[in-house]
Amino acid sequence: ATDPVFTATPADRNITLDRSCQLTVPDLAGEVTATDNCTAPGAIVITQSPVATTVIASGEGTTHTVTMTIDDGNGNTDTFDVTLTGDDATDPVFTATPADRNITLDGACQLTVPDLTGEVTATDNCTAPGAIVITQSPVATTVIASGEGTTHTITMTIDDGNGNTDTYDVTLTGDDATDPVFTATPADRNVTLNSSCQLTVPDLAGEVTATDNCTAPGAIVITQSPVATTVIASGEGTTHTVTMTIDDGNGNTDTYDVTLTGDDAEAPIVICPPDRNENVDPSLNFTIPDYTSLASSSDNCTATPTLSQDPVAGTVISGEGTVQPIKITADDGNGNTGECTFIVTLVNVPAPTIVCPPDQNENLDNNCQFILSDYTSLAIVTGASSVTQSPVPGTVISGASTVQPITLTAKNIVNDSVECTFNVI
Which segments constitute the HYR domain (predicted)? Predict the structure, then answer.
């Protein structure tokens, strides 16, 4: 009636749980030894309950009792309880993870970390999905110094609460979407036109300063269109737009328009007729005519400058030998004038007279032609400084019985003229 006695018993232990959070009971009989008063140790029957390989639903820290029994075969037994504790050693598993993404940078070129935990789902062998703890590092709303294309790693962690975790890295890339800002811009201006009425675009880039959230001021690219030294057809008061562009190198730009206005500052050129003598009338008076038609003018911007004279046409001057300066002024209509002066001297010169020779009979040559001679010396002339002939000497006439009128013109020094005509037969 004596029970057998345990001489060695299995120790309590942790059992690693499987992916279904189940515990498989190990075979503990081999760890038991016993003695009995009547039964030899090898004949003592050792059993356990639950038996080895039994699968039990469990959990982290869940305890299960396995009862060891020794039986001497004579109706005498003893028992010993072994405690098995569930040990969850399986990491949770991500079933959905956040995608890598670009994050728009703020005005200080900083990136604010978004909350990515809501984009994570996970499963675990022992912990329900809703109980899995999801965290991220850096945490949401963390502000990080960044830059265009700069990458930052956000580590997502899932924790089943049983000491098992897994991680997943999400890459955030800085995206600079902020345009640079002008801090100084060129003023609108007048630009003096050249002699061809063209405007040369000045270099305005040096008058621009700018700032940007990510790009240093010295690295901001400043351009203009049209570029400096471009030559543009223009005119007085004509406006031209030069567009200044600032570029931060990250695909962000801003523009500013500068207005250039053509300024014609070049005086027109006027060329006066040569000094001249003018003949007084019998009262020794002379009425100044309009001499502007005898002057020529040109201008860089105005095709035909307006000409005026001083004294004006119609002014009466008197006296033989009077010397009268005549000023011709050209006005281009753009506030610019040019002038020249010539001298009119009053003279008292009698009108010339001329008496033509009688009609002249001339013989034709073998070709039935005749070359006109110079007949001016045959005229009787008084008070003339020059005598001309039309047609001119050397002109060939032909044909029997041809009658060719010849006109002789006498002019005095003040360009008074008189003419007469005779025939060459």
Answer: 263-348
Residue 146 carries which side chain, given as an amino acid letter?
Answer: S
Query: Which of 207, 225, 209 has the alpha carbon at shortest distance from 217?
Result: 209
Beta bridge partners of 285: 318
Contacts of 35 (CB under 8 A, 6+ apart): 4, 5, 7, 41, 44
Measured distance CA(136)–CA(193) in Å, rounded: 67
Residues 173 and 179 sit within 8 Å (Cβ to Cβ): no
Judged on CB neighbours under 10 Å (0-12, 13-18, 19+), 96 is exposed
What is the separation of C-alpha 13 from the centre of its chain, rounded to a whole number of angstroms?
A: 75
Q: How many CA atoms lie within 13 A of 163 on its CB side?
A: 7
Residue with tokens 């305890």: 63
Q: What are the residues whose beta carbons fall under 8 Å from the beta carbon of 66, sequence distance 6 or more?
A: 10, 25, 28, 48, 49, 50, 81, 82, 83, 84
Q: What's the 3-state SS for 209-238?
A: EEECCCCCHHHCEEEEECCCCCEEECCCCC
For each of the chain's 425 residues, which pLDDT tens digit applies?
999 999 999 999 999 999 999 999 999 999 999 999 999 999 999 999 999 999 999 999 999 999 999 999 999 999 999 999 999 999 999 999 999 999 999 999 999 999 999 999 999 999 999 999 999 999 999 999 999 999 999 999 999 999 999 999 999 999 999 999 999 999 999 999 999 999 999 999 999 999 999 999 999 999 999 999 999 999 999 999 999 999 999 999 999 999 999 999 999 999 999 999 999 998 999 999 999 999 999 999 999 999 999 999 999 999 999 999 999 999 999 999 999 999 999 999 889 999 999 999 999 999 999 999 999 999 999 999 999 999 999 999 999 889 999 999 999 988 889 999 999 99
- Number of Cβ within 10 Å of residue 219's Cβ equals 11
Which amino acid is residue 77, in one-letter code? T
| 8 A C-beta contact, residue 66 and residue 28 | yes
* Residue type at position 125: N
Please identify which residue in the block is written with the tokens 């942790």: 14
Query: Where does residue 144 rank: exposed (0-12), middle (13-18), buried (19+ CB within 10 A)?
Result: middle
Q: Is the pTM of this model over 0.70?
A: yes
> What does the CA dihedral 137, 139, 141, 144 come to, rounded to 10 degrees?
-30
